[in-house]
Amino acid sequence: MKELAQRLAIRASMLQQLLLKWQTFLVRFVNKKSIREDLKNVKSIIFDFDGTLHDTIKIYYPAFSEGVKILKDHGYAKDFELSEDNVKRFLGEKPNFAYDLLAKDADEDFKLKVMTLVGQKMDENIKNRVGKLYDRTEEVLEKLSKTYDLYILSNCRESYLNQALDIYGIKKYFKKYYAAETFDFIPKDQIIKQERKNLREEIIFVGDRHHDMAAAHKNNLRSIFCTYGFGPVEEGKDATYKIDSIKEILEIL
After folding, report:
1. Same fold: 35-55+132-252 with 57-127
2. Packed helices 108-127 and 158-168: angle between N→C axes, nearest 10 degrees
3. CATH code for 57-127?
4. Contact present, 117 and 148 (Cβ < 8 Å)
5. Which of 27, 33, 229, 239 has its C-alpha lying 20 to 30 A from 79's C-alpha?
6. Architecture of the 35-55+132-252 domain
7. CA separation (Å) from 5 to 9, 13, 49, 142, 223?
8. How far apart, in whole angstroms, are the C-alpha atoms of residue 243 and residue 145?
9. Could you give the CA distance from residue 208 to residue 49 in angstroms, rounded to a whole number?
10. Are 39 and 253 in contact (CB under 8 A)?
C-alpha cells in the first residue's frame, strides 16, 4: 500500500507539472495573440543596433580594454575594474559617455584621442569578424522586411555602423539607417522627431537601453525592450512589450 501511494503521489506531481506547463503555454499564446492584434497597424520598425541586433561586447571589450589601460597609465580610472559586466553598461551610450565618467577631469583632447583609438580598434575587430549578430537576426530581418519598413537608429559613429552593416550583409533589409554622429549626437528622441515625417505610421521602437525606451515614450511610440541586451532589466520598466530573444519579435508582429 505504501509503495502504491508513493507511485500515485509521483504521478499526481507529474500531472500537476504538465498542467502548469499547459497553463503557461495558454497564457503566453493568448498574450501574444493579443499583442499581435494591438500591433496590427504597425508599418515601420526602428531598431537600435548594439545590444538589439549586434552582440557588440565581442568587439567592444578588447578595444575598450586598450583604452582603459591608457587611462590608467595616465592616472585615471584607478578604481575601475575591467570586466565584461562593467564594460557592458557603456554599450549603447554615446561614445564619450565612458570617458566623461572614468576620466572626467582629463583634457578633452586626451579623451578624444583615447576614444578615437578605441573606435579604430572596434573597426578593426569588425573587419576581422570578431563580432557577431544575435542568433537568427538575419532570418528575422529578412522576414520582417517583406512586410514592414525597417530602420536603424544607433548612438554610434557613421563609419562604424556603415561598416558593420556591410560586413554582416544586412544593409539590404533597411530603408535607412541613422547614426547619432550624423546628427551631432543629439538624443534619439530628437532624431525621431526630425525624421518621423519620412516614416510610415504606425511606428514601433525596438531597443535594449533606457534612452531607446525614452525615445519611444517622448514620441508617443510603442516600444519593445530586449531583455537579452546590455541594459539592466529596470531600464525596460516602461516598455510596452518585452522579448527575451530577437526571434520572439516574429511571434508578436
Report:
1. no
2. 10
3. 1.10.150
4. no
5. 229
6. 3-Layer(aba) Sandwich (3.40)
7. 6, 12, 57, 55, 52
8. 19
9. 9
10. yes
Q: How far apart are CA 78 and CA 7, in angstroms?
A: 62
Give the length of the chain: 253
Query: What residues have CB less than 8 Å from 131, skipping those under 6 apart?
Result: 54, 55, 56, 58, 59, 125, 164
Residue carrying the nine cell digits 549586434: 54
Q: How confident is the model over 74-97, as pLDDT tens digits?
A: 999 988 998 998 998 888 887 788
156/93 Cα distance (integer angstroms): 8
Question: pLDDT confidence of 17, banded at 50, 70, 90?
Answer: low
Domain ranges of the chain: 35-55+132-252, 57-127
pLDDT of res. 234: 93
Average pLDDT over residues 233-245: 94
Name the residue with cell 584607478. 78
